[in-house]
Amino acid sequence: xxxxxxxxxxxxxxxxxxxxxxxxxxxxxxxxxxxxxxxxxxxxxxxxxxxxxxxxxxxxxxxxxxxxxxxxxxxxxxxxxxxxxxxxxxxxxxxxxxxxxxxxxxxxxxxxxxxxxxxxxxxxxxxxxxxxxxxxxxxxxxxxxxxxxxxxxxxxxxxxxxxxxxxxxxxxxxxxxxxxxxxxxxxxxxxxxxxxxxxxxxxxxxxxxxxxxxxxxxxxxxxxxxxxxxxxxxxxxxxxxxxxxxxxxxxxxxxxxxxxxxxxxxxxxxxxxxxxxxxxxxxxxxxxxxxxxxxxxxxxxxxxxxxxxxxxxxxxxxxxxxxxxxxxxxxxxxxxxxxxxxxxxxxxxxxxxxxxxxxxxxxxxxxxxxxxxxxxxxxxxxx
Length: 383
Ligand code: GLA
Description:
Blueprint: H1 4-9, E1 15-24, E2 36-37, E3 39-53, E4 57-62, E5 70-73, H2 91-102, E6 109-116, H3 126-141, H4 148-163, H5 170-177, E7 182-187, E8 192-197, E9 205-215, H6 219-237, H7 250-255, H8 262-283, H9 291-305, H10 310-321, E10 326-330, E11 335-343, H11 347-360, E12 367-370, E13 378-381
Parallel strand pairs: 4-6
Antiparallel strand pairs: 1-3, 1-13, 2-7, 3-6, 4-5, 7-8, 9-11, 9-12, 10-11
Alpha-D-galactopyranose (GLA) is lined by residues 28-29, 31-32, 167-168, 170-171, 331-332.
């Protein structure tokens, strides 16, 4: 990225920062239940060129969006007004500035120019990348001294309370805290974390991302509905969150629930177990053996949690039929992307099989690429 900022604002930026998108290896729809997740950062990032302003004005520009520069006064930022209510991309960085200021941090005006290589609407956390890039740029420029975990918390607040999306904290934590060559094993209850070595190449493996290029319109409402169902399940069982239901007590717990809540609770409790199984295998150096765990996770998301779709199922089934070690949808679902674990020598054949299956079903061609665990948010250069 060169020159974008200068072309828009007529001066050079004070610095350049980048924050990545993510895939989640295992632990889906657990983060708003105080559960466990294991995302890794993608090499694709949102990059922001940024400079301070001393007049209390925030200017936002994206190379991907039509409509030029969005300009707002910091004191006019509110979830109901100034970009908060328009739902466009600018609400995300504006929301981050709002959240930083709400937390009492001394953030002044800024000019920001964004360029992102994270595919949007693909379930790969392009929004979190946009938020976290904004936060780390302002953290540096204004000397706020924020820890990565705090960055993630503030970005999640922006998304929940300013943009109005009821997400959990996984995506922001992944973008802020992941490190190259690792998956991030995260307990979303207290944000304790461990960097788990995830060197696929050394083990003759590859992780493919299949972006189905499908975004189902019902996604947002259905996410909130699943979330409400989980909360109702926890309330019916007398626990604060579903994290507190041990796997041994699941059969008895299910007996106490009505038919609508049962599959939701079963998914969350068994998914936390799958994260535990995956971490045991990774710690034992048996990465190839997590394949069946991934596929079991997909079946649970499809059959119990009801967040898959025909294209995601086809990506998973065709990859597994062609010899993948395992596959699952990743992220919120209702479209977006699947991940596929393959032996390196089978990667091309599996990709082709997925492509063919999509063509035969009359679906749009998917975008398939390799996920190599990249770095979390960082400063790219001084100016
Ligand atoms: C979306 C949300 C995350 C998480 C996943 C499902 O990506 O932003 O917080 O809930 O869905 O695991």
